[in-house]
Amino acid sequence: MVGGKLEYLYYILSVVTSLVVGLVIGLPVKVDINSFKGNLFFPTVFIALGLAAVTDFLFTLNLVFSILVGVVSSLFSKYVDVIFPGVSYGC
Predict the structure, then answer these.
(1) pLDDT given for residue 9 in this prediction
(2) By C-alpha distance, which of 37, 44, 50 is closest to 23?
(3) Which of 1, 21, 40, 65, CA to CA, is 20 to 30 A from 28?
(4) Nearest CA among 77, 68, 69 for reference residue 44
C-alpha cells in the first residue's frame, strides 16, 4: 500500500458504493440464514473488499476504480444465483 491512509478511504468508498448500489437495485436487506441467496451485507461487502484488494495489487486503486468495484460487486451479488446456479437436491 503505497498511498497510506488514502488507500483506506478508497476501500471504504468501494464498500459504501456497493451498499448504495445494492439498495438501489433491490438487494434484500434482511439476512436469511436458511438461504444461500445474496443480500445487501453478505456477500456484497466482502466481494467489494476483495475486488478492491485485487485492483490495488494489480493496478493502482483510485477514485474511479473504487466506484467501479462497488458497482460490479453489488451487481455480482444480485446475480450470483444466475452466474453460479445451485445444486438441486432430489425431486
Answers:
(1) 93
(2) 44
(3) 65
(4) 77
